[in-house]
Amino acid sequence: MLKPSSLLHILVSISITPGPESMISRNNAITHNCVASLDRNIWHSSISVPTKLRLYRVFTLPVILYEADTWSPSGRLATNLDAFEQCCLRRILRICWRDNISNEEVRRRTDQPPVTHIIRITRLMFFGRTARADPSMDHSRAPRACVDPLPRDWNRRSGRPRHTWLLTVESDLAPLNIGLATAYRRARKRQAWSTLVGTATSITGQAT
Prior knowledge:
single chain, mainly alpha, 2 domains
């Protein structure tokens, strides 16, 4: 869980970085090295598959998901993320591409949800934490500003991305027909927001 002192830094990063592509590429490269380094002693050892998967979730998955709650990946990047994780899981299960085993079967054997599903949950939980932040803290201004109407003379700066983090949050909540303003009000109550996030992600998870 992110500490309040780090929230401002991350919110600033959301506004000044052009997109998550560089962060995703960095995380994937680090994860690839991490998975490759464990080939001989872990993945190709006699350790049971459940134990290997626990090690993957504890030591490898957090590397993939580092700063993922601030990402707003495009459809192409989301597909690449799930494909990369599939490669990692197949490596753990020692499944070769010649074995002709589907991705759904790999998910069934590992009981591992797609990494994009996990990212969706962490993104919504991060939105809830910023919405509940004390009004005196700088990082609490971002969610409040996002739900206020834009000034009539406001124009998007040239070169700024149209697919923003807040639009991604709004898309995550679309199955429940909830906009950002309603989400901001509901996120003020921790337990109710956790229940809503679980409902929203279960619906989108079934759709993917």
